[in-house]
Design brief:
The complex is a heterodimer of chains A (329) and B (330). Chain A has 15 helices and two strands. Chain A is mainly alpha-helical and 329 residues long. Chain A has a single domain, classed as ABC transporter involved in vitamin B12 uptake, BtuC (Orthogonal Bundle). In chain A, α5 runs parallel beside α7, α9 packs across α10 and α9 packs antiparallel against α12. Chain B has 330 residues and is mainly α. Chain B has one domain: ABC transporter involved in vitamin B12 uptake, BtuC. Chain B has a two-stranded antiparallel sheet with strand order 1-4. The longest helix of chain B is centred in the middle third of the chain and has 30 residues. Chain B is globular, with a radius of gyration of 21 Å. The chains are: A mainly alpha (329), B mainly alpha (330). At the A-B interface, α7, α13 and α15 of A face α7, α13 and α15 of B.
Chain lengths: 329, 330
């Protein structure tokens, strides 16, 4: 029980609970199943990518190029299914394939260039974005085949009055991705190796871990989820635009960091990441429901990021003075 | 051929390896574009336009580079510049002030308030990073988001345009044929270079950047060093804002956002180690000139600016691979 109070997730959960209570009292529409389902559906693609980012951060890395990866996957997926037809499985397969390929390229570069991954992925972000804009000419894609526009609902709830609350495919994928990532990190040797690599790279190398393979996996997994997330996004909005996902990279990183993952690597949990995404989603929803001008959203988000990372850093500093310990979730 | 016969050259190389890469690249780029664009590239008008375009990016790059030198990064430079620019423009457009002050006084007041704002922002970044101990990426990511929010809130997303003539003159006039922005840029480069190479507080950045703990234990007040560096970085962003708004004749949230990554690129290309501890201003200037020449050359060749962006990313990767190879050899 005492360890609970030390956990970042606990405080984040507490803040979210306060926000939820506040919003339930001040608005009628917040705590309804429709609103919550819709809210989480609209954040599901960011959530899927956040799971990938979590794994990258735990390994001690960082990826800023995943939004460009996602957009490239989206364009190639959309043009292929429009030209040659196909089905939903093929759409996801294309998205995931392109994502993995670009992710592996990042992994290769990160391993061979011994520079902070942020700089390397800034370079690949520029490269991917430039090529994307050059080949797509910034065109939007609307004319999806009919089968792509059907709603794919996994579970449908009905209340007594006959209202339908569907769990859409993007939301379902988000939940599956969280469970799979959580399992991977917590119960597989691979996952524990990723924590170890992020905690102390040199120690992991001397233990005989294959750092090259781990790095490739981590960035490949990020690319894979960026690809999957991009198809989920296309399903949700039914358009592909060059600027729909690009520019959201810092939002995703902020959500994951709010969820307790450290940029230094070695710590972070799936539950924290989910809470981080929930926090960002609820703030944006609150701004709309309370009728506050939407400009305030960024101010709130910025203030919360600064406060939360400052508290974490300060606590870390205090703890360092008391004792040195390795934090594995 | 033994390296001994190149004794002197080798010493020079050891002293400043990056110049040995950058100066040839600079000359090759110059030659390639001059040959492939006869009568268009190697002209007074092209170089004058480069001299007008370079300072904005150049000053922002120095603001980025000094934080990278100290082992950090400042993601909030563009956001700082935009907010400072918006504040300056708002003062210059304020009815009550316009009625009471002469043009020069109004512009001076606006610049003083704008620069003070940017210094305060830099100071806050420094406090969060050095005294609270937040990693620079996160701290400046937070302030960037916050500042962008404040900028959008104050302007409601609109453009503030139609600045006084005195302000427009700063960005568009020349003295003895040299554009004023370029003069400002060169002065800043000289001052920052002096600070980094000849003063204790500047030199400390190299030590803090290469090993913060070691610097701390050898009696350097690392917190003070970082605080100063981020404050100067904020001030430089504010100076860039002056040139930016006078060249655009307007201020708005979200101007020049794409520059953020370019400043990182230019710094790394100019030999500033992203892990901190090394880098020199003269090399940075060569790197900026090369990038600006490539941009203007590709533009003159009629190549899509998007492809140019992709090319810059590739250049950055190749440069890092080469630097990495050199590091492994030595």
């Amino acid at each position: 029980m005492s360890s609970l109070f030390k956990r970042n997730e606990f405080y984040l959960g507490l803040i979210i609970l306060c926000l939820v209570i506040f919003l339930s009292i001040t608005t009628n529409s917040f705590l309804t199943i429709e609103n919550l389902l819709e809210l989480f559906t609209s954040y599901s693609f960011l959530g899927i990518m956040a799971a990938g980012m979590l794994v990258v951060l735990i390994s001690g890395g960082l990826d800023l190029s995943f939004t460009a990866t996602a957009t490239i996957s989206q364009y190639i997926m959309a043009t292929t299914i429009i030209k040659y037809g196909g089905n939903l499985f093929i759409a996801f397969l294309i998205g995931a394939g392109i994502g993995i390929a670009l992710g592996l390229l990042n992994g290769l570069l990160v391993h061979y260039i011994k520079v902070h991954p942020m700089i390397i992925t800034i370079a690949t972000l520029n490269l991917f974005k430039g090529l994307l804009m050059f080949f797509s000419k910034g065109k939007w894609i609307y004319n999806f085949p009919l089968w792509f526009s059907e709603p794919y609902d996994i579970m449908v709830f009905k209340n007594s009055e006959g209202y339908i609350y569907p769990i859409s495919l993007p939301l379902f994928i988000f939940i599956v991705v969280l469970i799979v990532t959580g399992f991977l990190l917590k119960y597989t040797i691979l996952g524990r190796k990723i924590y170890a690599m992020g905690g102390n790279k040199e120690a992991a190398r001397r233990m005989g871990f294959n750092l090259f393979a781990l790095t490739l996996f981590v960035y490949g997994y990020m690319g894979f989820l960026a690809g999957i997330g991009s198809v989920a996004h296309a399903l949700m909005v039914q358009t592909v635009a060059p600027n729909a996902i690009i520019g959201k990279e810092l939002d995703v990183i902020a959500a994951v960091v709010l969820g307790g993952a450290s940029l230094l690597g070695g710590s972070g949990t799936v539950i924290g990441t989910f809470l981080g995404i929930a926090m960002v989603a609820i703030i944006s929803n609150a701004v709309i429901l309370l009728g506050i001008p939407s400009y305030w959203y960024m101010i709130f988000l910025g203030a919360i990021i600064i406060t939360s990372v400052s508290i974490t850093a300060y606590n870390y500093k205090l703890n360092m003075r008391k004792e040195a310990e390795i934090d594995v979730a | 051929m033994s390296l001994k016969s190149f004794g002197k050259v080798e010493v020079l190389y050891r002293k400043n390896p990056n110049s040995f890469v950058l100066i040839p690249i600079f000359l090759i780029t110059l030659a390639l574009f001059s040959v492939s664009l006869p009568g268009k590239f190697f002209t007074v008008s092209n170089f004058s336009s480069i001299a007008f375009q370079l300072p904005e990016l150049g000053i922002l790059t120095i603001a980025m580079a000094i934080t990278m030198l100290s082992g950090g990064i400042n993601l909030s430079i563009i956001a700082t510049a935009n907010l400072a620019g918006i504040i300056m423009a708002t003062i210059m457009k304020s009815q009550s002030l316009v009625a009471n002050l002469s043009g020069v006084n109004l512009v001076t007041l606006a610049i003083v308030v704008g620069l003070s704002t940017s210094v305060i922002i830099g100071f806050i970044n420094g406090i969060i990073i050095s005294y609270i101990g937040v990693s620079p990426i996160l701290a400046t990511l937070g302030t960037m988001t916050l500042l962008n929010g404040i900028s959008i809130l104050t302007t409601k997303g609109y453009v503030i345009s139609g600045l006084p003539d005195e302000m427009i003159a700063v960005g568009n006039n020349s003295i003895l044929g040299i554009p004023i922005p370029f003069i400002i840029f060169i002065i800043i480069a000289i001052v920052i270079n002096f600070w980094l190479r000849k003063t204790t507080s500047g030199l400390s950045n190299y030590l803090v950047g290469s090993n913060e703990n070691a610097a701390n234990y050898s009696g350097i007040n690392t917190r003070k060093v970082l605080l100063k560096t981020y404050t100067i970085s904020g001030l430089l962003s504010g100076i860039a804002a002056i040139i930016m708004i006078s060249r655009f004749n307007s201020a708005r949230a979200g101007y020049a956002e794409s520059y953020l990554l370019v400043t990182v690129l230019a710094s790394v290309f100019g030999g500033f180690d992203p892990n901190g501890g090394s880098g020199r201003i003269p090399n940075l200037i060569f790197s900026l000139f090369i990038l600006q020449m490539v941009a203007s050359g590709l533009n003159l060749l009629g190549i899509s600016s998007h492809l140019a962006g992709a090319l810059w990313g590739t250049i950055l990767i190749v440069v890092m691979l080469l630097q990495n190879k050199r590091k492994n050899e030595s």
